[in-house]
Amino acid sequence: MDDRGGSFVAVRRISQGLDRGNTCHSTSAEVVAGSAAWIGRGLSCVCAQRRESDAHQSFDLTLAQEECLQVLQNRIDVAYDSSIPEHQEALRALWNAVFPEEELRGLISEQWKEMGWQGKDPSTDFRGGGLISLENLLYFARNFPDLLRKQEGDRATWEYPFAVAGVNITFMLIQMLDLEAVKPRTMVGAMFLKFLAENESAFDLLYCITFKLMDNQWLAMHASYMDFNAVMKATRRQLERSFCEKT
Length: 247
Hints:
This protein is mainly alpha-helical. It has one domain (28-244). It is built from 9 helices and no strands. The longest helix has 26 residues, at 28-53.
């Protein structure tokens, strides 16, 4: 996509209820409110490690952190493959979570544009995020329908595309947290692995928090499709500050 975000397509506001199939009743606002405490729990451990190292930072991992990182990296390494039945079912599940009252006519269909994909075949948009980006979208759609419905705040005239925005968030988090490295090379990455060792769903939860932050940025900036990249950059800066402001 170009720097102006011109390749993004508009997405209709989703008004259907998502009560069926929900596994969590927390709102996205509660997730964001809880994230401060969640992040804070990891700060004391990581900051103490930094102070004790004196001359340089140390980001050595515990055995539990190494194992959790490997599991997450295994997820990241899986590319979406439209020929694999399990991947097909995950994509159908995403459609059913977002549009429970509308029957999907096919895995390649113009209907997908209604969710915010760039074309009629969503698999072409997974190249940057892999299967984990689909898993993140599905987790978000099932657990936090309030933001999915875009009912919070004074909504923008032009809404960001839910699906493509979600894939971009997955890709951004993988880069920001340096998750493809053998061990963390930044304070942010080290803190995240502390959270991951405590909660195996840490990446999925952080994804939802980031989606909420992005939504807030979109509204605060009165953004349009030309501002999408700027919104994503502002969201990343805000998230990094949330991790590091107490270090």
